[in-house]
């Protein structure tokens, strides 16, 4: 199959078995731009590597030095097939174009709950906010309970942030983290939401206080990205 370009992943598709998420540190804005171009070229000159890879999206960090990679897979076997037979040749080309990329880890995730866009919401996201939450030790029930606590806070918030489009909460398969892939109208909309009353996104409510003081959370972070490259399988052999 050929490769086609897409503006964003379809986060609501029901055939996704798992998601792989990783971050690259490339150092500077110029290297960030060159790395994104090298990824595009390395993938565009080859056929789509595996039918089990459903989409691959790259996001450019607001910090000017990182790239966040988000790929949807039918299952772990599909990823392992790609790992053995397609990943290295692409990365070799990318590393030749931009030597010294630091690959900061790969996480395997499953989508647990989403707040999708409204049916009449035609906004295209100008910003993707990745929220990472890390827990002390593996506990899959705790992961899901934390997400459920967030949804209770969202559902009772008297003044939800107007710039948010959607949120997609993923749990890692090792039980240690949650990742929210949140689409926003713009970076400014997210900055304004953080500046509103409350500790971060969300009003000052008991439900949000439970989220913010949830036991067992040890770390994490919030990072803003701009969609840089989206790839999907195309038609044809």
Could you describe the 3D structure shown?
This protein has helices at 29-44, 76-85, 87-97, 140-156, 187-195, 206-212; strands at residues 3-5, 18-25, 53-61, 66-73, 102-115, 127-135, 164-172, 177-184, 217-233. By secondary structure, it is of the alpha+beta class. It is globular, with a radius of gyration of 18 Å. Strands 2-4-3-9-6-8-7-5 form an 8-stranded antiparallel beta barrel, surrounded by 4 helices. The longest helix has 17 residues, at 140-156. It is built from 6 helices and 9 strands, in the order ββαββααββαββααβ. Helix content is 30%, strand content 36%.
Describe the structure concisely for a colleague:
The protein has helices at 29-44, 76-85, 87-97, 140-156, 187-195, 206-212; strands at residues 3-5, 18-25, 53-61, 66-73, 102-115, 127-135, 164-172, 177-184, 217-233. By secondary structure, it is α+β, with helices and mostly antiparallel strands.
How would you summarize the topology of this molecule?
Blueprint: E1 3-5, E2 18-25, H1 29-44, E3 53-61, E4 66-73, H2 76-85, H3 87-97, E5 102-115, E6 127-135, H4 140-156, E7 164-172, E8 177-184, H5 187-195, H6 206-212, E9 217-233
Antiparallel strand pairs: 1-9, 2-4, 2-5, 3-4, 3-9, 5-7, 6-8, 6-9, 7-8
Helix pairs in contact: 1-3, 4-6
